Amino acid sequence: MEMLVPLASMTPPRPLALRSIAVIGPTCSGKSSIINALCGREVAPVGIDKTTKYIKSYKEKHFCIYDTPGFGDLDTNFTKENISLWKGLTVRIVLITTSITEVIQIFHLFDAIGLNYDIVVNKFDLVEPNARETFKVYIKNEILTYDLKRVKNVWYVSALKPTQFPDWQKMIFYLHGDQVGPYHTVAKIYPDVEMWFEEMTNTRNRKFAAIVLLPNRTPSQVEEFIRTNIHNHRGVDVCFVISDDGNLYDTQWCTTFSPEMRWSRSIDDRWCDNVQAACCTASDLYINHYQKQEMRSRDENNEANTRWFRLQQCNRAVIQTQYNQLLSNSS
């Protein structure tokens, strides 16, 4: 390592466009799963036989994620190409699962050449709930023991269950930086669905996604609800359904948008009380929140209880977190 530091110091940084983020870590630490969760779709192959052998990039609208080969020995990982990439990055995510020692050499190198980095402890869901705080203390003590100087953040997450731990949302905010607005910022409130629809039909985006919260429904009832209430309406592209147990269902509906098919109050009326609905485009999330109040007349209740929220910068990987945040903010 001592011999590597002078070479790394002299290596020029690789020029990178956009906000550049690399996921660095040992093989089988879940790098591909992290990348897929950050992108909101499967872009990186997952599996024991799908290990990354070369640097790969996945370009998103506001940032570019780089997947690097899993850590093994110095000869295969501490190459001039890798070092140049690391030095040119905006954000360096170093992935571990059980201990700092898994990638201690990369930490020492980054410290030696003055590169900041963030530690992501993946597969946190595999830690027993009653042992999680103890595990966090263990990682914190390791950071102190090994005198890691350039670490900025430590997040405890599960790439396969991103909504389970609050650190995931914190990490999302951080990774996007100033390139996008806050996920939970309410940009606009629509008094009724027709005003929202009229505005949206004046945009170029003709594909939508829908999300609904269905309390006290079985999976088969959820499927029936989607088929009878959402399918064939306004070209819904993807439907996200959250059941009362907190599970997120992702059902693909490939339909063609038709401007003539207005989503009027009659469709709203087919949804019972306690059902929250939303639509999102590629960049924004729209949520129709039905407040629980005493019933008055039918028309008065619709006006008083239906509010449309527009949340900036929708990311499908964190829709459920956005939704829960909206409910808590509007209660």
Written description of the protein model:
With 331 residues, the protein is an alpha/beta fold. 32% of the residues lie in helices and 23% in strands. It is built from 12 helices and 13 strands. The chain has helices at residues 4-10, 31-39, 74-77, 80-88, 104-113, 132-145, 167-176, 193-200, 219-229, 265-269, 298-305, 319-330, and strands at 19-24, 56-59, 63-67, 91-96, 117-121, 151-156, 186-190, 208-214, 236-243, 248-252, 276-280, 284-290, 306-312. A 7-stranded mixed sheet has the order 7-13-12-11-8-9-10, with helices on both faces.
CATH homologous superfamily designation of the largest domain: P-loop containing nucleotide triphosphate hydrolases
Order of helices and strands: HEHEEHHEHEHEHEHEHEEHEEHEH
Structural class based on helices, strands and sheet pairing: alpha/beta
Which fold name is given in CATH as the topology of the largest domain? Answer: Rossmann fold
Put simply, the count of helices is: 12
Which runs of at least 5 residues are low in confidence (pLDDT < 50)? 178-194, 203-214, 230-320
Strand content: 15-25%
Averaging pLDDT over every residue, what do you get? 64
- Rg, alpha carbons: 23 Å
- How far the N terminus sits from the C terminus, by CA atoms, comes to 55 Å
Major beta-sheet overview: 7 strands, mixed
CATH architecture of the largest domain: 3-Layer(aba) Sandwich
Under the CATH scheme, which class of the largest domain? Alpha Beta
Molecular shape: globular
Number of domains: 2
Number of strands: 13
- Helix proportion range: 25-40%
Q: Strand order, biggest sheet?
A: 7-13-12-11-8-9-10
